[in-house]
Design goal:
Largest sheet: 6 strands, mixed
Low-confidence stretches: 1-33
Structural class: alpha+beta
Order of helices and strands: HEEHEEEEEEHHEEEEEHHEEEEEEEEEEE
Mean pLDDT: 83
Oligomer: single chain
Length: about 425
């Protein structure tokens, strides 16, 4: 493109200055200060050059085109397929199978405390002694009365036999025999009463020694030596608790109850068979469920206010690791899925519609797949529905992809954690 610039037009546009030389007035097109004029001329030249350049660029017909970036590389993997045991999981509390308050059943002063607080004792171990002398004397008295009653009965028996013989020989009257018979029967009754009194005295004397009714741990004593116990009512001396085995009480919600009953019906199990189901128990600080036991009791009805069924298990506790009152985690295996699909928990997302997975379709376009999740199994999450064995699930780089986006899938394998013992 040609451009023509006229110098006169430029000069004509400059301001005119008049000056007097030799008595004549002269008009000049240039300023009286040449330096200023040169600076203005430089600025005008630059402006003209910029205008020319912009016009040249405007005349160019070349166009810029947008080049899309390559699809992002994203790790995908097919779900793990393996057998998974189905569990009913719950929380519960431990409780002792036996817990008894040791009380004073006779009145007297506490004479001895024969154990150390909090120790384990065997059945029959003597724990307390309550003033036995008085009750020993009462026992002796009862035994003496019993001996006298036995002597009276022997005499009455002998007299009765003689009277029977004399009546047969008609040596005495029938009235005499009737009197002898009555005396014998009265002696027999007196002996029975004496024997009962002796038994009562023996029991009261035995109550002066308080022993452990079963193996267990005895709590701290609640009375002191020399204190009067059993004066008006039984006085509690201590408590003994059985620790092995131990009960685990928990509840199962109605939905799980229906699932278990349906599975039991499918397998032909009776309510008695359900009590043989194993249970696994773990404490809050333990990994997994290291304690094993079995179901012991299932309530016949649901609690209508909570919608739960009371269940109890019994767990061996030889080392007394489980204490009564512990909060525990419980699970009961009831079924096994031989071909369950599992993915890492990190691959799952959630929104208002529920849980979902990002899956690459055959065109490598990301799809959002709604899924139904199940329990965790050895570090992976069971997918109940919404996923196929050959689906390619996005397992890494979820923040770099969105549904409908094309990706460059990098097929990997889901790493399975080492199986735990429980």
């Amino acid at each position: 493109m040609a451009m023509v610039f006229h110098g006169q037009a430029i000069v004509g546009s400059l301001p005119h200055r008049q000056s007097a030389i030799g008595g004549h007035r002269m008009t000049s097109a240039y300023p009286v200060r040449p330096a200023r004029f040169r600076g203005a001329r430089k600025h005008i030249g630059r402006a003209l050059a910029a205008a020319a350049a912009s016009m040249v660029l405007a005349g160019c017909e070349d166009k810029n085109t947008f080049v899309a970036p390559p699809p992002p590389k994203v790790d995908v993997a097919t779900p793990v397929q393996r057998p998974v045991t189905r569990y009913v999981e719950a929380t519960g509390n431990t409780a002792p199978i036996k817990s008894v308050d040791l009380v004073a059943r006779v009145q007297g002063f506490l004479q001895t405390i024969d154990y150390t607080d909090g120790t384990f004792v065997k059945q029959g171990t003597q724990l307390f002694t309550i003033e036995p002398e008085t009750y020993k004397l009462k026992l002796d008295q009862a035994q003496a009365a019993e001996a006298g009653a036995q002597a009276s009965l022997r005499q009455a028996e002998a007299d009765y036999k003689r009277q029977v013989d004399l009546v047969q020989r008609q040596a005495v009257s029938q009235a005499t025999l009737d009197t002898s018979t009555s005396t014998r029967d009265n002696a027999q009754a007196n002996l029975q009463q004496a024997q009962a009194n002796t038994r009562i005295a023996e029991l009261n004397y035995s109550y002066t020694k308080v022993s452990a009714p079963f193996d267990g741990i005895v709590s701290a004593h609640m009375v002191s030596i020399g204190e009067l116990v059993g004066a008006s009512s039984p006085t509690q001396l201590a408590t003994i608790v059985a620790m092995d085995p131990i009960w685990v009480n928990f509840t199962v919600n109605e939905q799980d109850v229906l699932r278990i009953r349906a599975e039991a019906q499918r397998r032909g199990l009776t309510p008695a068979d359900l009590k043989q189901f194993p249970i696994e128990v773990g404490l809050q600080t333990e990994t997994g469920y290291p304690h094993e036991g079995r179901l012991d009791y299932v309530a016949p009805t649901l609690n209508s206010s909570t919608g739960t069924l009371a269940v109890r298990g019994v767990v061996p506790n030889a080392n007394r690791v489980l204490l009564p009152g512990y909060f525990v985690r419980v699970r009961v295996p009831f079924d096994q899925d031989k071909n369950a699909l599992l993915v890492p928990d990190t691959a799952l997302g959630s929104d208002q519609g529920g849980r979902y997975l990002l899956v690459a379709n055959k065109d490598n376009v990301v799809e959002q797949r709604k899924v139904q999740t199940g329990p965790a199994d050895n570090g992976l999450r069971v997918i109940e529905s919404g996923l196929q064995p050959d689906d390619r699930v996005v397992i890494a780089g979820l923040l770099r992809v969105i549904p409908g986006q094309k990706i460059d899938p990098q097929l990997t394998k889901i790493e399975q954690p080492q199986a735990s013992s429980k």
